[in-house]
């Protein structure tokens, strides 16, 4: 455990063919964030496989699905699944229409269920929570909007804009920015923040970016530093 990794997590990763150390490094050592992403991806995989097995799926949608699986699998350390998804993506790119009977697509569909099991098993062996943020004193904000940390009111526009940019780029650094905003008291924003947080945690970066923009537009003082 010199590197901070539990032996059970190491064993789960090795048995599932997951490159735990490399993935944990990409997450900045935040194993709790990594665990959430593993679970989210594992929950998504059955639906993605079902979509790919549908002969009525549009070719462009099939391409996006294979590409998403490839990218997320690589980010989370499941290189074998990423390779299978890359082969399916290449196959789709060469076909005039989506063909779920092609061997490459069938291999990807078949790889999703065991990958989901491996991802979930590893997630269960990782810590469920990260370091606790330091509480900050809260004071009413000037103008419309929730109560915010007294020292943070000027930070909001910059933090939200940075988050929006990461979301637009589907950059996993968005997870760290989300944690920082939460530590500053962003939960006081209510339903819009909750929707944004949920979208990020389920890796739906497109929806999360839309919620981020809506939050900034609905709260004008956030868009102009004091």
Features:
2 strands, single chain, mainly alpha, 226 residues, 2 domains, two-stranded antiparallel sheet
Overview of this protein structure:
By secondary structure, this protein is mainly α. The chain has two domains: 7-124; 138-222, no CATH class. The chain has helices spanning 7-16, 20-26, 31-52, 59-75, 79-94, 103-124, 155-168, 173-183, 191-201, 205-218; strands at 138-139, 148-149. The protein has a two-stranded antiparallel ribbon with strand order 1-2. Strand 1 and strand 2 form a beta hairpin. Helix 3 (31-52) packs antiparallel against helix 4 (59-75), helix 7 packs antiparallel against helix 10 and helix 9 runs antiparallel to helix 10. The chain is globular and about 50 Å long.
Kindly summarize this structure in a few lines:
This protein is 64% helix and 2% strand. It is mainly α and 226 residues long.
| Total domains | 2
Order of helical and strand elements: HHHHHHEEHHHH
Unreliable residue stretches? 132-154
Strand element count? 2
User: How many helices?
Assistant: 10
Oligomeric nature of the chains: single chain
Instruction: Determine the strand fraction and express it as a percent band.
Output: under 5%
Structural topology:
Layout: H1 7-16, H2 20-26, H3 31-52, H4 59-75, H5 79-94, H6 103-124, E1 138-139, E2 148-149, H7 155-168, H8 173-183, H9 191-201, H10 205-218
Antiparallel strand pairs: 1-2
Helix pairs in contact: 1-6, 3-4, 3-6, 4-5, 5-6, 7-8, 7-10, 9-10
């Amino acid at each position: 455990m010199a590197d901070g990794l539990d032996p059970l997590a190491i064993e789960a990763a090795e048995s599932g063919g997951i490159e735990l150390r490399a993935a944990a490094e990409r997450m900045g050592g935040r194993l709790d964030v990594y665990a959430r992403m593993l679970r989210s991806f594992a929950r998504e995989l059955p639906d993605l496989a079902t979509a790919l097995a549908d002969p009525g799926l549009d070719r462009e949608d099939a391409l996006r699905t294979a590409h998403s699986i490839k990218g997320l699998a690589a980010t989370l350390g499941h290189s074998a699944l990423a390779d299978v998804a890359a082969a399916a993506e290449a196959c789709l790119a060469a076909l005039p229409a989506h063909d779920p009977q092609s061997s490459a697509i069938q291999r990807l569909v078949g790889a999703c269920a065991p990958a989901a099991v491996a991802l979930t098993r590893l997630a269960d062996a990782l810590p469920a929570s990260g370091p606790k943020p330091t509480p900050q004193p809260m004071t009413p904000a000037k103008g419309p909007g929730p109560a915010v940390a007294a020292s943070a009111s000027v930070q909001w526009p910059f933090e939200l804009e940075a988050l929006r940019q990461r979301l637009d780029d589907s950059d996993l650094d968005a997870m760290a920015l989300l944690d920082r905003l939460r530590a500053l008291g962003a939960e006081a924003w209510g339903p819009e923040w909750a929707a944004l947080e949920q979208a990020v945690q389920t890796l739906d970066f497109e929806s999360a970016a839309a919620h981020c923009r809506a939050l900034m537009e609905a709260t004008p003082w956030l868009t102009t530093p004091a």
